[in-house]
């Protein structure tokens, strides 16, 4: 019997998996995507956000404008899998499934080549740097994106722990607001036998970390959900005759909404200010890796639910948002739309685990759901 012809979209996904690139470095990834999707005849292809790619289908300037986004960056994780498409880049791998998200968008491009956009325009965005939260603002601030003003924006994320192909969504916040707070403490070094002649920030750092716990509400079902996770600290040097004079505390914060994130951050900074009074320790703070909550518009949620049912897909309305962040949230802060999830398998390793892999069986149904959402706006 002749050998079975491999699915080109699965092969494309696995090619991306073999050659992952970190956030902001996706130059070769973009070239691979460009080479593959060129066969699907977009009306226009535009480089965006330094390492991203924007495809346009349709040229009608008066009809609806829909944006569908997939992320394309990988993570600094050493892969432990031994399959044929394992990462060829030491210490870097696609452990969040962005290779699969890109393959879904490529499959959608193929559908649009076969079924041209009749009204308005459709934009397919292959977005870089999602993992650092820098990709979405880079796209929104790119002059090439400035005049798009989409009427609807959609995105998905694969979901380990859910049955394969199950669509998961909810109105309102779908993913949490997430950001990291960096606090530096500048005192003065001294001999460890004479700590009174220096200013050691250790006890202030410890007090701040302990005090921060009073602002946590860890129940994921609560509207006041707030999670504060210490992720990194440093203090002084490994020199036992020296009392430390410098330290850092890094916290990652998670809340249900971006408004609650502002309140939590304010509470932490106020506490820090009160604790540091009279200590002689200089305090500097910085915010990094900001992810706005994905705010699913009720109409966009209803479209996803209805189209999933129409296609015969299993559908689950999640009662509370996911605790992880996703930078597509910045798009939903500016444009009505929604993000949904699709089950990667109940026994799938979790996202960001070193043995995770995207389930190729999701490529076709996810692309079909996106196509159905576009058909809704073409009606």
UniProtKB/TrEMBL annotation:
Domain Peptidase M20 dimerisation: 181-268
KW ATP-binding (keyword) present: no
Pfam families xrefs: M20_dimer, Peptidase_M20
Residues spanning the signal sequence: none
Alphabetized UniProt keyword annotations: Hydrolase
Domain of life: Bacteria
Claim: Hydrolase is one of the keywords in the record: yes
Protein name: Amidohydrolase
Species annotation: Larkinella bovis
Taxonomic lineage: Bacteria, Pseudomonadati, Bacteroidota, Cytophagia, Cytophagales
């Amino acid at each position: 019997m002749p050998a079975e012809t491999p699915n080109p979209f699965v092969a494309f996904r696995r090619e991306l998996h073999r050659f992952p690139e970190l956030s902001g470095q996706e130059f070769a990834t973009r070239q691979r995507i460009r080479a593959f999707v060129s066969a699907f005849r977009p009306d226009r292809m535009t480089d965006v956000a330094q390492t991203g790619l924007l495809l346009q289908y349709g040229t009608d300037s008066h009809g609806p404008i829909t944006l569908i986004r997939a992320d394309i960056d990988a993570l600094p994780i050493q892969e432990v899998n031994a399959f044929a498409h394992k990462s060829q880049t030491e210490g870097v791998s696609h452990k969040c499934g962005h290779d699969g998200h890109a393959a879904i968008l490529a499959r959608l491009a193929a559908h649009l080549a076969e079924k041209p956009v009749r009204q308005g325009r459709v934009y397919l965005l292959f977005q870089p740097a999602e993992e650092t939260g820098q990709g979405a603002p880079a796209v929104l601030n790119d002059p090439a994106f400035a005049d798009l003003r989409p009427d609807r924006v959609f995105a998905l994320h694969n979901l380990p722990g859910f049955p394969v192909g199950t669509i998961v969504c909810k109105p309102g916040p779908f993913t949490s607001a997430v950001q990291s707070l960096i606090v530096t403490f500048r005192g003065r070094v001294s001999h460890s036998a004479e700590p009174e002649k220096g200013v050691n920030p250790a006890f202030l750092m410890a007090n701040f970390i302990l005090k921060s716990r009073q602002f946590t509400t860890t129940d994921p079902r609560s509207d006041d959900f707030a999670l504060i996770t210490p992720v990194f600290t440093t203090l002084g040097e490994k020199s036992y005759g020296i009392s430390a004079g410098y330290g850092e505390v890094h916290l990652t914060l998670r809340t249900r909404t971006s408004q609650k994130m502002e309140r939590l951050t304010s509470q932490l900074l106020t506490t820090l200010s009160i604790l540091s009074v009279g200590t002689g320790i200089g305090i500097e703070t910085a915010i990094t890796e900001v992810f706005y909550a994905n705010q699913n518009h009720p109409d966009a949620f209803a479209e996803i639910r209805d189209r999933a049912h129409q296609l015969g897909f299993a559908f689950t309305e999640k009662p509370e948002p996911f605790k992880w962040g996703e930078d597509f949230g910045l798009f939903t802060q500016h444009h009505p739309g929604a993000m949904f999830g699709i089950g990667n398998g109940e026994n799938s390793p979790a996202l960001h685990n070193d043995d995770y892999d995207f389930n190729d069986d999701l490529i076709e149904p996810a692309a079909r759901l996106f196509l159905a959402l576009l058909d809704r706006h073409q009606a």
